Amino acid sequence: MSESRNAILGKLRAGRDAHPLTPPESDFAVLRNKRWDGAERLERIKRMMEAVHTEFLETTEADWPTDVQAFLKAQGTRNLLFGPATEAGGRLSAEWAEGGPELIPYADRVETFKERLFDGIDAGITTTLGAIADTGSLIVWPTPEEPRLMSLVPHMHLALLRADALYDTFWQAMTENRWADGMPTNALLISGPSKTADIEQTLAYGVHGPKRLVVVVIR
Amino acid sequence: MGESSINFAKASSAALQDQQLRGNFRRAMDGLMSKRAVQFADTAEWNGVRALGASVRLRALSKLPELLEKLEANCTKNGIQVHWASTTDEANAIVLSIMQRVNAKLVVKGKSMVSEEMHLNAFLEKRGIECLESDLGEYIVQLDEAMPSHIIMPAIHMNTKQIAHLFKQKIKEAEYTEDVAQLTDLARRVLRKKFATADVGISGVNMAVAETGTLCLVENEGNGRMSTTVPPVHIAVMGLEKVVEKLEDVPPVISLLTRSATAQPITTYVNMISSPRKAGEKDGPDEIHLVILDNGRSGIYADEELRNTLRCIRCGACMNHCPVYTKVGGHAYQAPYPGPIGSILMPQVEGLEKRGELPHACTMCNACVEICPVKIPIVEIMGRLRSEAVHPGDAVRGAGSHASKAEAMVWKGWSMTYASPLAYQFATALLAKLGNAAPASLPLLKEWTNVRAKPRFANRTLHALAREKGIPDV
């Protein structure tokens, strides 16, 4: 271990031991008490996310692949990046009708198709682990089957949200599901399309990440 | 004052003459303040989450050495390589050695205040490595060859017209436009190419979780995710105070941070990174390095009162609410961290010889203390540093460097006069007779009179008037 490491830790320890600090209790009640009823949660999520330009597409378990295809066709989307090895990906391949936007599988390491990913992909679709009412956020854990860049590089990100996978707060989602026992390589909250206000506080969408975020609500 | 000291008074006086700059700041800060107030309109909720946030930060500080060791152990277990740097020189050298090993030519950077503290861009560019800021505000400031003027909104000092001219002048394919959406889209096109080809991505860290070895980054643009996902190597730099104990400590701090900073309930992205690319994963960096920087922080930590500076979560709300910052803007401070937090942090990091003027860039109005989401007693620390600057000691580097014999004599004389009724009567009688004859250009008096009218002494003292009314002296 480095000299600096030991010097820094030594100095911190001496400083702290000379003047120990007793912190106040952490009372999480303020987060625990944030609650919304079932229907209210989704309404709130929609309201908050729409306020930052997120779009919503309502569909059902049976129809979502068809509805997604029809939506993309109407938007003039040329292609859709998807994870072929997920259950949702299986449904998409099986139920994708002829003549719609081209389905492009994210099947290999990014190095094999980086150029196309950055230049030639219009939309990407991923699943989510649910959404959070407090802040209007989607929970996304990328996996080997659904890599990280799918929700970032394509100009449009479609996110599948099951209408029963809703939480009150970020804190509730992480404590109830015991995230601390094992975090994935990357865990994300996504609360809208990419945006910036760096030019004179004027909001503009789609600066580096997706220009559009479409939440596909499956009931 | 030492030769190398930074002249805040001169820089702020120049800034005050710049009507354009003052207008830009006034508009921006007014908007930020009113939007933030809406976010915290529920006072009970604000009090609750603020107390929780402060407790999270204090708990982390109470176990700081242990938590850093735990963070290191868990990051290492997850495959993140941890480096320690006592100084910014050392941190730069660590970053450079990683770059050289992978033969990096192009670096994309997400927003990082610590890298500003390190002057990392200039350091790498001198060594032939292109270092591109990818946060739109930072990108604008970099094109302009300037420094950020706010820790959250780096280009807040410029208006759209100024940025439009800058883009036209500096970006080859740019057409002149004042349309913000078009300007943003231009930056998108330029930077996408860079993300796709960069050898290394550099980011800061908003919070590092000891319990899980997780680096948390919040952002709106997606450049942070790009910088930490696309290049094969990711280097994260953090000040050693950024650690929190548990994963569940993250939500309250993020809530306070995003609402205080930009009045958003949450940023577009909350990016939690716990490991490099694992076997079977198709993207993400193969290597992640975490550089933990001290740069004076362990010294700050040793002092019971000054230690509170390290609670800071870098939301920038203190700037937005500061009557001094909003008038003079960020550049007058000539520091990576301007405003109230900069005025207490910079003197402690870089020493009072160089930064001793900054604690005086404060009216002690307490506005920053009232809105600080983690309750840092900024004004008390400001007063403490003013005192440290004129009294030799070991708590802060450069303590006593601003001591002045003349000032000490004036105070001594004042205290002697006030300790003796006879001396006091004599002195006040003398000033009543002769005080008005003192020229406004007298040293010390000049500090006051060069921008204000000279105060006039009354012909008769208050004591004399009281005696006439039959009120005895004692």
CATH superfamily descriptor of the largest domain in chain B: NagB/RpiA/CoA transferase-like
Distance between the termini of chain B: 44 Å
Number of DSSP strand runs of chain A: 12
Low-pLDDT stretches of chain A are none
Protein structure class of chain B: alpha/beta
The strand count of chain B comes to 10
Task: Report the sheet with the most strands of chain B, covering strand number, pairing sense and barrel closure.
Answer: 6 strands, parallel
User: Structural class of the secondary structure composition of chain A?
Assistant: alpha/beta
Strand content of chain B: 5-15%
The poorly predicted ranges of chain B are none
CATH architecture of chain A: 3-Layer(aba) Sandwich
- CATH names the topology of the largest domain in chain B as Rossmann fold
Which strand order spans the largest sheet of chain B, edge to edge or round the barrel? 1-10-7-4-2-3
How many domains comprise the coordinates of chain A?
1
Shape assignment of chain B = elongated
CATH superfamily of chain A: NagB/RpiA/CoA transferase-like
What shape does the CA trace of chain A take? globular
CATH class of chain A: Alpha Beta
Q: Return the string of H and E elements of chain A.
A: HHHEHEHEHEEEEEHEEEE
